Ig-like domain-containing protein (Haloferax massiliensis), 392 residues
Amino acid sequence: MKRRALLSTVAGSALGLAGGCLSDADEATETPANPQTTATGSPTGSPTETDTSDPEADPDVGLSVVNEDDEPHALSVRVTDGGGTRVDSSLDVGAGPGYGRNVANDLVGDGSYRVVAELETGATLDYEWTVTNEARRLELVVTPDADLEPRQRVTPAFDDADLPYSVPDAADIFSPPTAGIRNRSDADARLTVAIEHDGTLFFEHAFDAATDREISTPSLVESHGTYEVFVEAEDGRTATHEWRIPEKWAWPTLAVLVADDGSLRVGSGWPKMASVHVENEGEAERDLTVTLVRPDDADAAGDDAGGTGTGSGGTVVSETSRTVSPGESNLAFDVPIGDEYELSIETPAGSETVDYPACYCWSTNVTVTLEGGSSGGNGGGPSVESSQYVCE
């Protein structure tokens, strides 16, 4: 792997390149036309806004809600400033993860708002939202445990950068990708992100990754190819990613994450829960283990999503075991960051492994069939069918 001046201070670290893929968005409710924004639903009833005739209203200043829980919720929102009430609304939010809708647009420009929100579960949020030239949109996030969190959308300008980067004689990408930077830990972080192509460093920028914001960059590259991404925090934490953008994929994105535990992850889509469909054709319960492995990543100590080396050139990043009853069911497992993985399906009678891209606009569906033996019991090994889907 090539080294750069930025990472020279961690030359003693093991910085393995993770396998790359486009980006993550199996969530059917997200639209690839703008991977970093939420889809707008068509709910009954619309939010109530006041002062819509305000001559200083700015159409770029807006408020939305996104549901990362798998249950629908009812939300009430009140937004005030020194001039009075700007929004007083109650709305229904469809089940997620990934469902989103607008609450209000055309709020006034730079300044501070008080945003008070409450779910029907009793979870509340009281947040001071400061609108600046870079931070003009706020999301109210319903978390998977039905809590409320603020997430400011920040889009910095790179006046000194020649973006998007173009590779001579390479095909253009249909939708030139941006990068998203999220911080889900309890502490603010400052991250430096650098991107190389064939040894040429063409992008390097430091970002203030506060815990209540998501940073979206302008388009970074416009050519299909393979790029090396390096991320470093001020305290020395690092992560790397081989960002592959083959010609047949038109909707790439890059995700940089400070996870809940403070670890750095970089990949081709955000963490999510995935599942395999299981058809147990026997009359007895069967034991099943699903293991997600990042191939050729055994040396990526402290990098990306972490994991445990398998001793065979791969790293286990997620493992789930369950006893499945006869009939059909789904077995869920964790995908810690968007990437190209292998998925191993194992029973006491045998195992099978398939390629498993889990990225934005490059996803995998898996069906596992457990055939029943003549006398029940564990039967034979699993039969696995997989299919991949891409945005073209």
